[in-house]
Amino acid sequence: MKSFKFDWLVLPFIGIAVVMLLWQVSCATWAKDLPTPSKTWETSKPYIMEPFAKRGEMDQGILRFTWYSLILVAKGYALALIIGTPIGFFLGLSKTFTKAFDPIIQVLRPVSPLAWLPLGLVLFMGAGKNASELGALFTIAVCSMWPTVLNTAVGVRAIPQDYLNVAKVLKLSRRKTLFKVLIPASLPYMFTGFRLSLGIAWLVIVAAEMLTGRPGVGGFLWQEYNALIYEHIILCIITIGVVGFILDRLMSVVEKKFKTA
Amino acid sequence: MAYLELKNVSKSFGNSPVLKDVNLSVESGEFVAIVGFSGAGKTTLISLIAGLLNPTSGLVTLNGAVITAPGPDRGIVFQNYSLLPWLTVFENILLAVEAVFPSWSAEQQKAHVEKYIEMVNLTPARNKKPSELSGGMRQRVSVARTLAMEPQILLLDEPLSALDALTRATLQDEIARIRTQHQKTIVLITNDPDEGIYLADRIIPLTAGPSATLGPSFEVKIPHPRDRKSINHDEHFKQLRREIVDFMLGSKSERHTAITKKLILPDIEPEDLNIPRSMTAWRKTPIRKREQKEEAVEVKP
Question: Does A184 reside within a domain?
């Protein structure tokens, strides 16, 4: 029990301390423009201490910015799941569908969010004020959908023949086979995909906000870079990292619940 | 015409023949056991009767109608239980009942499920998931699910082979009891001749594969209900077991299989170590002369 606490509580702090030290040393030696840890803390204090303050469009508490980003991610991510899961199912069920669409999926999958965003903006140019939001949503959905698509397809293909035999012997209707056999059987795989997708969606949000200048963690980061307040860049990086970590943990808790099935 | 009939049924997967010229007729209400070695094609045979597979040639008929697809009139109990792990015992059986008796009211369906759960003595476990049950309990759920469909014929595909000896004996007795209660036509696939003799009216050995076929049928002339202890001393039982085992072993030794192998002989010319290293640089890899050979090996067990 003692070593357990040491491993999980003390060691991570040692890791953090080492990185802080390297940061401090870097500031003193080769990276003169890099703000020191203490300076970063001083400058970021108002944003952390009043996390929900709203002083202006681009001058708000860090959690308020995070909240904006999370809402946008939630929308884009929901869109990705709604589109991605059925595509995954078709890929898993039909060999013809796989042969037809797998190559194009493999080609589109590695395309960077930075490449999709301009296209998204062009697509929704007519939307006027909402163009940047719709463009960002499009980018998040397109980039984060692939793990869901591929994992769902793998999950459907991996359904044991036994379960399919049961469905056949019972002559279950298509609807019943889908809801009682196919979906529950592939759920563990699907959730792995959902989790990976969420990670990517959060990764994309920063790029999307930087390019569109929307209020949010990414937008704030880019604005403060332009305003030469480098301390806030570090604040944003840490926030993005922590939020991403929490999202991943949450998803893995949900994922574990379905693993037993 | 017999109730269930297989006429010259053959089945092969690709180029490998599994079953060849299988003929079987089972009368209504009869309990037939098919014994065979593992890997001989027993599961293939029962899948053909269930309609999960279609024969390469020949006909499978039930009550005169050709079987081409699976259906709830043939209840199959799978070797590995095949329960859906995300449903409870009750839900697993209800799924089957809903599929087979869609016109019944929800109350009727539920009562029907309860009846069969009780029949296999699983009422205390009705709300458990399969993962929380022992192997024997899972197989009882599987049996209950199949019986709840009220099939005309019961197909048991090595239902007890994954269980320990004690559970096995208990479930054998349970099958015997169900059989006397319901008088259903039953086809039991097993790898244990004793199990077949203990339960069935007739026992038919399946010869060793590939191209397995059914041997002569042995009538079990021991009246039901049979007693596990005294049956071991029954002369008829002993003789029957001897005949069946002899037949099965005989069928195995008759097999002469020729396996053709493609042999690649790695004919590597050894490096000449007398030549200085610097001179061999231009031909670093050893010279290989590949030779291919076809060789037939006679296999006699």
Answer: yes
